[in-house]
Write a structure and sequence with these properties.
about 0% strand, 4 helices, mainly alpha
Length: about 150
């Protein structure tokens, strides 16, 4: 039972990380066309960098799905759905923080919306969304773990 709960946590986290990566690629790279993974190249280079990013995100989604499949039905575990949602949101929020801090600020390979007069606003909003997702996920997960602790005592 503990192994299944761990797989739900890890699988949900990985799935959330990959899902927010996919949303980033779909919304910011393709639909809005605000940026690419690596902006300092010509258009074919940008397409290749985005393709590699989408491939990595797809692999992450598949791994998260497999881990959840192996974990079996989250409904079969006490508060399993809350674990799934909490860790999914934490994973998604960590994607935003990791990608935002590394790519936007440390490596400076792109900004969320570089053509805007105030690109820092969009970068900080992106990071803020990551923090909000982590906090909400933590609160959902914490409620589940507090519930489990009271049952086990």
């Amino acid at each position: 039972m503990k192994t299944h709960r761990s797989l739900i946590k890890i699988g949900s986290f990985v799935l959330g990380f990959g899902f927010l990566g996919a949303l980033d690629g779909i919304i910011f790279h393709q639909l809005l066309q605000w940026h690419s993974v690596y902006m300092a190249t010509d258009r074919p280079g940008q397409i290749v960098s985005d393709g590699l990013f989408h491939f990595a995100v797809t692999i992450t989604l598949v791994i998260g799905g497999i881990l959840l499949w192996v974990a079996e039905n989250p409904i079969a575990h006490k508060k399993g759905i809350r674990l799934l949602i909490g860790w999914f949101l934490i994973g998604g929020g960590l994607f935003n923080l990791t990608e935002g801090i590394i790519n936007h600020h440390i490596l400076q390979i792109h900004r969320v919306k570089p053509a805007d007069p105030n690109p820092l606003f969009y970068d900080l909003t992106f990071l803020g969304l990551g923090v909000v997702l982590i906090v909400i996920g933590y609160l959902i997960k914490k409620n589940t773990e507090t519930y489990q602790a009271t049952i086990n005592t």
